[in-house]
Design a protein that fits this description.
The chain is an alpha+beta fold. The chain has 2 domains: 161 residues, Beta Barrel (Porin); 244 residues, Ferritin, CATH 1.20.1260. Helices cover 45% and strands 25% of the residues. The chain is built from 9 helices and 12 strands. Helix 5 runs antiparallel to helix 6 and helix 5 packs antiparallel against helix 9. The longest helix is centred in the middle third of the chain and has 34 residues. The chain starts with a helix and ends with a helix.
Length: 426
């Protein structure tokens, strides 16, 4: 019979391979099913101090509200570089907090540790854990093991640190095309209904990896554009309730119609690439904030600065750069339309900021000043997929340099304009 030490290495390798193979590209597109492999280092305290190196594979069903999910996990750790090991399996749940900067997750399940020697027998136990920081990528977990009745092993306390990629609860990203949909301070993206269809794929020669990456990227664009529809509907409602001029309310409604066109265009391109019919889900508008008028004006001003002046301004610049490089049929025209509309939406954001400043006085000026000072220097970091660079560009996608350059260009202009507005009312 093979020794445990001879079997542990292949077992760890098999677990890691399974985690990678079970992480399909389709999962990222809908933001629902997610597989996240990870590597962990640990130290445990009980009847003996143990150092561990292990793999942690997780499946999560990510809820519609993004970066929040529940699922199952499996762990295998090599202890003290010896023939001993620990295994665990069970359920986990949690999500990212504060706009996906920090996260929290808990876990419960079964665990088994092999014997560490004649004086330290192994046994089965109840596995409990709590931890998680850093967008569900960097993981710091505190775990406890409670032996089952009749087991010879003793209770253990474990501190584990490591990393998961992709993140355990989805890829929360701030690079959203269109005006983002906020609920409770979080950005939300819709799911996508998919139906296979015969034929219809774009007649271009692409390797499977590149085609999947392009389809996923355009599908994410469609999700972002679709989320903008209820966002603008809520904006028009809130502007009317705050007593905004009629033209601002009407322009917000018109922008919702623009986003519907963008959604159809992006979903059609993604569907052609994936040979599927794709329909993003239309989410409901978020409820009114319930704030008094002064605080509501501050909210409208700050969100119009962040989502309109910054976000849609940068989106317009990105879309124009994408249109310039797009060579495939229909993509350049769609991106030029989006660039023109997003520029108008950014200009609407400036109009709203100006009106809020004129109506809200000093409290609104202070809120905007704080938002401008806290504006990020660069866009959210996204790991661009592995794709053939020329095909990526020809299909209307940008590389990291262009993404950052478009953000920087718009950011400098937006800061200058905001400072001028604040100084004029100083």
């Amino acid at each position: 019979m093979k020794s445990f030490s001879s079997l542990l290495g292949p077992a760890l390798g098999a677990l890691g391979a399974a985690a990678v193979l079970l992480s399909p590209g389709e999962a990222r597109a809908d933001g629902e099913h997610w597989v996240s492999p990870g590597l962990m280092l640990s130290v445990s305290f009980g009847d003996k101090t143990n150092f561990g190196l292990g793999l942690d594979a997780r499946y999560a069903y990510v809820l519609r509200y993004q970066s929040v999910g529940v699922g199952a996990f499996a762990q295998a750790s090599w202890l003290n570089f010896s023939s001993a090991g620990r295994f665990a399996a069970g359920l986990h749940g949690g999500g990212d907090l504060s706009r996906a900067l920090f996260g929290l997750q808990g876990e419960v399940g079964w665990t088994y540790r092999t014997a560490l020697g004649e004086e330290h027998p192994g046994g089965h136990g109840v596995h409990l854990g709590l931890g998680g920081i850093g967008m569900s990528i960097i993981d710091l977990v505190f775990r406890g093991t409670i032996p089952l009745p009749g087991e010879p092993s003793k209770p253990e306390f474990t501190i584990a640190a490591g990393a998961h990629f992709p993140p355990m609860y989805g890829m929360g990203s701030l690079i959203i095309e269109g005006r983002p949909l906020r609920v409770g301070g979080r950005y939300i993206l819709p799911g996508v209904a998919r139906k296979p269809r015969r034929g219809g794929a774009r007649p271009v020669r692409l390797d499977d990896t590149t085609r999947l990456a392009l389809a996923s990227a355009w599908r994410d664009d469609a999700r972002g554009e679709c989320a903008s529809i209820p966002s603008f509907l809520a904006l028009s409602r809130d502007l009317a309730a705050a007593g905004a001029p009629r033209d601002l309310v009407q322009r917000a409604l018109a922008a919702a119609a623009d986003e519907a066109r963008h959604t159809r265009a992006c979903a059609a391109i993604a569907g052609d690439l994936a040979s599927m019919s794709l329909v993003p889900e239309l989410l409901p508008a978020p409820p009114p904030s319930g704030l008094d008028r002064t605080r509501e004006l501050s909210r409208l001003c700050v969100e119009s600065w962040e989502d309109g002046c910054l976000g849609e301004g940068a989106a317009a610049e990105r879309a124009q750069r994408r249109a310039t490089g797009a060579k495939e049929e229909g993509m350049g025209a769609a991106l030029s339309m989006i660039a023109k509309d997003e520029a108008q939406h950014a200009e609407l954001g400036w109009r709203i900021v100006q009106w809020c400043l004129s109506e809200g006085g000093q409290p609104v000026r202070e809120a905007l000043g704080e938002a401008v000072a806290a504006s990020p220097e660069g866009p959210a970091r996204e790991d661009l997929p592995e794709a053939e660079p020329r095909a990526w560009r020809a299909h209307g996608r940008l590389g990291r340099v262009d993404i950052e350059a478009s953000w920087e260009k718009n950011l400098q202009m937006a800061r200058t304009t905001a400072d001028r507005m604040l100084s004029a009312r100083g």
